[in-house]
Specification:
The protein is mainly β. It has strands spanning about 25, 30-35, 55-60, 65-70, 80-85, 90-95, 95-100, 105-110, 115-120, 125-135, 150-155, 160-165.
Amino acid sequence: EGEFDLQISITQPPANDYFTNSIPINQSRQTLIYNYYSKLDETLDYAIPGVNNSLWWNVTPVETGTLSLRSVDGNFSQDYWRLMALDQGDYRAINPVTQSPGLKTFNVNAGEPCFLWFAVPNGEIGEGQLSFELWANPANDDFGQPVDITDFTTTTYSNGEVRKYSLAGRNNGSTDPGE
């Protein structure tokens, strides 16, 4: 006989634990995720030693551009994230164009369905924030399509004037860096 306190938490596997339940990405956004109780039990799951979990997202971009996945909190390693495209009934891996700690960027094509496989080593299982960044390629990607910079401010000095030009933009998806 005696008294005790009992606390129970019941957690279901994440809904996007399966490829067939992948969550659509149709715009840039941040989301809170957890990968407790997710498993590797599908034929499309990658077999990587020390990884026994996976989550799935899908994207069919409206415009050709880039998809970046970022671990906002920095607690998920990018080494195990994969993107694949459906190509005439078969799935093919899409190699990242850039990768750095907690960030991976892939080129994506307009109208081409892609599936993002997210996994981490068993020691990194937990909760965190992911940022999905979906960007169209810039319109001025090459020398033949320049964007005029016409916005400037002028400061007048005794020996002349100085014009300061400014333009904001992104260089994602540029096909000829340095052009």
